[in-house]
Amino acid sequence: MPRTSTGPGRASSPRKNSGSRPLGPRPQRVPAATKSPARIKFERISLRPLTVIHRLPRLIVPIVMGALLLTGLLLPSSWAGLLLVALAAILGWFVALSWPAIVPSARALRVVVIIVIAAAAVWRLTGHQ
């Protein structure tokens, strides 16, 4: 039985209901066709790192990000702040890449999460435990 595609590089399981939506109940927004030169350059620069990330096993990225968060929150030194800064930078990069395709409520939540992690990083870098 041939497997149907649910997106780039992914095939759906033959056990799944063919009528279900793979990305959730809400319709996905299609980004505008015209992009600014800065956006095109940003996407071009991000292409190589995204290709490397895409080739990794699926669980590696969440595990690494969870490890950065836990280590950054539990480690009692200034290194913890640097780990949280790295995590906030990675999340900010992901949000910037997905910005045209996400709805405003999701944008707000993602920005709040990045701000909270950045605030925790500043708290740790200033020597608070």
How is this structure best described in words?
- The structure is a single chain.
- With 129 residues, the protein is mostly helical.
- It has a domain at 61-129.
- The chain is built from four helices and two strands, in the order ββαααα.
- Strand 1 (5-7) and strand 2 (10-11) form a beta hairpin.
Query: How many helix segments?
Result: 4
Proportion of strand residues? under 5%
Number of strands: 2
- Radius of gyration (CA) equals 18 Å
- What global shape is seen? globular
Main sheet attributes: strand count, strand direction, barrel closure: 2 strands, antiparallel
User: What pattern of helices and strands is seen along the backbone?
Assistant: EEHHHH
Salient structural properties:
2 strands, 129 residues, mainly alpha, two-stranded antiparallel sheet
Write the layout of secondary structure elements.
Blueprint: E1 5-7, E2 10-11, H1 37-55, H2 60-74, H3 78-98, H4 104-125
Antiparallel strand pairs: 1-2
Quick rundown:
Helices cover 60% and strands 4% of the residues. By secondary structure, it is mainly α.
